[in-house]
Design a protein that fits this description.
- The protein is of the alpha+beta class.
- Among the domains are: 240 residues, archaeoglobus fulgidus dsm 4304 fold; 33 residues, no CATH class.
- Helix content is 45%, strand content 18%.
- The strands form two sheets. The chain has a nine-stranded mixed sheet with strand order 1-9-10-11-8-7-2-3-4, sandwiched between helices. A two-stranded antiparallel sheet has the order 5-6.
- α4 runs parallel beside α6.
């Protein structure tokens, strides 16, 4: 039981400290806007400086693909168009339940605007219960699957289901403009993959690349929408503008915590662009200096920021979308329209989440149904003593 009375003093202290931090945040934003003006005056020089620095920079640095002064005005929103989206949720395996299985539930959305056709709003659950589903082989040992691995599998399934939707949409509505939306980063599984064995990493990256290639073959641009992004690659570019050294080599010139370019972080990119973009406008396109893993070589990540009216969102697209001006304009227009319809968040992504989400009652019904099926198969059904105590309480 949480004793809120004991938290009262800590929360009061936190409120005062957060108020002080807000003043510091405003000062960082002011400095960022000033540094941006300086960057525009020396754009070519500083971009060459960034290319020379390469891996000597200890942070991820944005690399512009368009002039920094560029502002992409909102294109005309087509009256007839299609928006696809997927999202997922899971029930992790529990050794205290009747069976150590797990469940992935993927929400699928296809909204068709301007034709009067009914939308697709459904979910596809998949039960994993076989030995190969529940264990992985590491150093000749069978190790129980972790929640991180299940989360990674769910992320892959979301993109693969999005590819299926794209192929079906291209087959049935080949002439309508469309966009395929993802929630979160385009390469969001990469941090989860870093802890996996090399063979598992290769398999996952191959599946991800194949899914993106299927979407590309369906001639539908894919876009990842990130709300309240905390990424700061453009801010790191501003730090380069504040660097007093001709050749930036952080480990040589500056001690950790005493960098000459300090004063801007932690400030996310969206805070900079909120002072630079008008409603519906997008920032220039950027990519990063770090290439993607080899299996994703054709899916290099590009990004831009979009003033959606409710927030400045980060939109991530693969290079093959960024290289098509018509697709880029299509993404900008349709995502903006989705945020307007969703009153602050793309309505297709919100509905995909609603289709995928597994509530507490759903979880209870899932295990109740599983118990009945095990009994029908003449299997003994038992809960752990811990789970029984949690359900019944202490008498």
């Amino acid at each position: 039981m949480l004793d809120l009375a004991k938290l009262n003093t800590q929360m009061r202290q936190a409120a005062f400290e957060l108020r002080a931090d807000l003043s510091l945040h405003h000062e960082r934003k002011k400095q960022a806007l000033n540094s941006w003006k300086n960057l525009l005056l020396r754009e070519t020089e500083l971009l060459e400086k960034g290319l020379q620095a390469g891996t000597n920079m200890p942070w991820s640095l944005a690399r512009p693909l368009e002039p920094l002064v560029y502002r992409g005005r909102l294109p005309e929103i087509p009256e007839t168009h299609i928006v696809l989206a997927t999202d997922g949720s899971q029930i992790a395996p529990s050794r205290h339940e009747v069976s150590p299985c797990y469940l992935l539930n993927i929400g699928l959305i296809r909204f068709i605007y301007g034709t009067g056709e009914r939308p697709l709003q459904t979910s596809e659950p998949q039960l994993y219960y076989r030995e190969q589903d529940l264990y992985t082989t590491t150093k000749r040992q069978l190790i129980g699957i972790s929640e991180e691995q299940i989360s990674m599998e769910r992320s892959l399934k979301e993109v693969e289901k999005l590819a299926e939707l794209a192929e079906e949409t291209q087959q049935n509505w080949p002439d309508l403009p469309a966009v395929a939306l993802m929630d979160g980063s385009l390469h969001g599984i990469l941090p989860e993959l870093s802890t996996q064995p090399p063979e598992a990493q290769t398999r996952a990256l191959r599946r991800l690349n194949q899914a993106f290639e299927r979407i590309q073959a369906a001639q539908i641009p894919v876009c990842a929408y990130i709300s309240l992004s905390r990424r700061s690659e453009v801010i790191q570019l501003l730090r380069l503008a504040r660097c007093p050294f001709e050749f930036p080599h952080c480990n040589v010139h500056c001690a950790e915590g005493q960098e000459a370019c300090a004063g801007l972080t932690p400030l996310p990119d969206r805070e900079l662009w909120s002072g630079l973009l008008g409603p519906g406008e997008r920032s220039p396109l950027f990519t990063t200096h770090s290439p993607p893993p080899e299996p994703l070589a054709n899916q290099a990540l590009c990004f831009f920021y979009l003033e959606c009216g409710f927030e400045v969102a980060r939109l991530e697209i693969p290079r093959w979308v960024a290289d098509r001006p018509d697709w880029l304009a299509q993404v900008q227009a349709l995502v903006y329209a989705q945020v307007e319809k969703g009153r602050g968040y793309p309505i297709a992504l919100a509905e995909a989440h609603n289709q995928a989400v597994i509530k507490g009652t759903d979880r209870s019904q899932f295990y109740a149904l599983l118990s009945r099926k095990l009994v029908e198969a003449q299997m003994d059904v038992k809960l752990s003593r811990k789970e029984l105590k949690k359900r019944r309480g202490i008498v």
